[in-house]
Design a protein that fits this description.
Length: about 270
Amino acid sequence: MSTEQHDPDVYGQELARIGHHQSEATGARFTVFQALAAAGVSPEQADEIVSKLEAGAVAGAHTWISESSPPHGSEQRFEDGWFAGVRDVASYLLRVADTTATTQRGLAASSALLLAHHRQPASSASTPSAQEPAPALDTEKVLAAARRCTWALAAPSEFLGPEASDEILAAALGAVREDERAGYAERLEAFAEQHRARLEELLRAYGPGSAPASHGRYMLAGRPESLIICERMEAVPFLLRSQWDKALEAVLLDDLEFAWGPRTRLSR
C-alpha cells in the first residue's frame, strides 16, 4: 500500500492547492454577485443562480468519478473494492450537489454587506444615526446557550473546557448583524439542533483526543465558541472572515472551516 497519503509534505501541498482553488472561487463568486446586483438581480435570485452553477460543478465531479475504472488487469477483489469506493464517493457527491442546489442562501446578501462595509467612508462612523440604535447583543446569554448546546453534543471527557477566549468570542459575535441580535441565542440553539449529527461528527473527528488534535491543530473544535463560528460560517461567511482577520490568526479559522465543511470556504 502506498504511504504517500500519510506524507505530511504531500498532504500540505494538497491543502495548499485546494486552498488556492477555494480562494479563487471565493473571489469569482464575489465578482459574480457584484455583477448580478448591478444588473438588478435580487440577492435571492443571485443565490439561486450561483448555487445552481456550483451544484452543476459538483455534478460534473460525480460524473467523472462514476465513470472511472480500476487499472486494467486488476484482481477481482481489487475491482470489487474499487467500484464499492466509487459508489460511496459518487453518492456523497450527489448529496453535496443536492444540498448546494437547495440550501445555499444568504451569500449574495453577505457579499453585499461586506462590499458596503469596505466602501463606507471613514468619517461615517462619527455621523449620528437617525434610526433607533440596535439592541446590544447579550454576550453572556449567547455564550451560555453555546455551552449548553456543546455540552449536549459531547461527553464531558471530550469537551475542551468552557473557558471562553475574549478575542475568539469578539470575532465570532462581531459577525452577528444588528438585525440578528434580538433572539440570536435562540437562533443558535435551533442551529445546534438542526445540525446535531454534523456537530457530533466534527467533535469526534477533530475535537480533543482525536488524531488531528494531537498534532496541535483544530484548537477551536470542542470550544463553545465554535458553535457560534460554525453558525456564522453558514450565515455570513464573508463577514465572519472580515471580522476574524482583524485580530486573530487565520489558521484557527481555516482549520475549523476545513473540519466543518461549510457551503462557502474562504480559507486562503
